Amino acid sequence: MSAVLGPLEPLVEGPLTVTDFVRYQGASGDMNPIHHDGEFARAAGFPSVFAVGMRQAGVLAAYVGDRLGPDNVRRFEVQFRAIAWPGDTITYTGEVTAVEQTPTHTVCTVEVRATRQTGEVHLAGTAVFEVPKL
Fold it and tell me: Among 6, 39, 68, 85, which residue's beta carbon has the most beta carbons within 10 A?
């Protein structure tokens, strides 16, 4: 693999639905009603239910892993920056910002983001991949 500095092809997902949230909640075992019960969410001070952030973090990890190899992930860190709501369209992006060659691997650092259609960053982070040389 010859990694090149620069952006990866983006992935666009959406619009997000409450069903997306519930599917993730069921799979993860986290059934916090703030993500699927509108009355509960409003009582907690929110205008509606909102996305399970770990769901989009998982999509972001799969997005970058699909491009550089899931077996090659050495670190994946993400920070939640803004709430995502039902109806949002999320664009997942990555940019290879550093490439280091070792005798046996190509080490790539990738800055990753999940951005709402408003331009607001929902998630931001870094992934490091260690890709074996053939």
Answer: 68
User: Which CATH number characterizes residue 80's domain?
Assistant: 3.10.129.10
* DSSP strands (E only) in 11-133: 11-13, 73-80, 90-101, 105-116, 121-132
Dihedral sign from CA coordinates of 50, 117, 14, 123: negative
Residue 129 scores a pLDDT above 90: yes
Give domain status of residue 122, yes or no: yes
Tens-digit pLDDT profile for residues 16-42: 999 999 999 999 999 999 999 999 999
Is 43 part of a structural domain of the chain?
Answer: yes
What is the sign, positive or negative, of the torsion defined by CA atoms of 96, 115, 77, 57? negative
DSSP for 29-53 reads T---GGGT-HHHHHHTT-SS----H
